[in-house]
Backbone:
């Protein structure tokens, strides 16, 4: 795994779904209420799987499936998890889905798949950005871009990740 020396970008190499689940659990152990995760990557790259494993690690009884047909689902655990999947959302849907009502809520974490579709709703926000890259078979590279305020948290996750 390599981290850019000049930015708050971290790269996690996942060889399997079990590795991705472990990474999600590490994030679940460190994230606080109000956190926002923006997940990007091609279809089938593991975004929804990561959110499902995040929910499991937070103690949710009901686990996420693709939210594409509902746009948003919430899950209750140690913190609430608000899961938005904006793949099928059009610009006209953005004002009606209420994303702005969930971002930054102190009682939960907001995970947004396909955040580019939401336009200016989150202008000025500094979310953790997770970019899922296919690396052959079940392998993935998950690039995490952290705002300055979250870089130390991701560095701790990186240290724990390397202790495999």
Residues:
């Amino acid at each position: 795994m390599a981290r850019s020396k000049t930015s708050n970008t971290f790269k996690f190499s996942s060889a399997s779904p079990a590795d991705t689940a472990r990474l999600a659990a590490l994030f679940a152990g460190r994230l606080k209420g109000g956190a926002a995760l923006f997940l990007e990557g091609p279809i089938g790259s593991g975004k929804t799987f990561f959110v499902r494993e995040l929910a499991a690690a937070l103690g949710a009884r009901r686990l996420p499936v693709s939210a594409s047909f509902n746009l948003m689902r919430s899950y209750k655990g140690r913190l609430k998890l608000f899961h938005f999947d904006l793949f099928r959302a059009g610009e006209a849907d953005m004002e009606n889905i209420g994303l702005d009502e969930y971002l930054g809520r102190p009682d939960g974490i907001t995970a947004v798949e396909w955040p580019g579709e939401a336009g200016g709703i989150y202008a000025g926000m500094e979310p953790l950005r997770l970019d899922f890259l296919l690396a052959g078979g079940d392998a993935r590279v998950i690039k995490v871009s952290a705002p300055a305020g979250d870089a130390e948290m991701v560095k701790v996750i990186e240290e724990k990740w390397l202790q495999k």
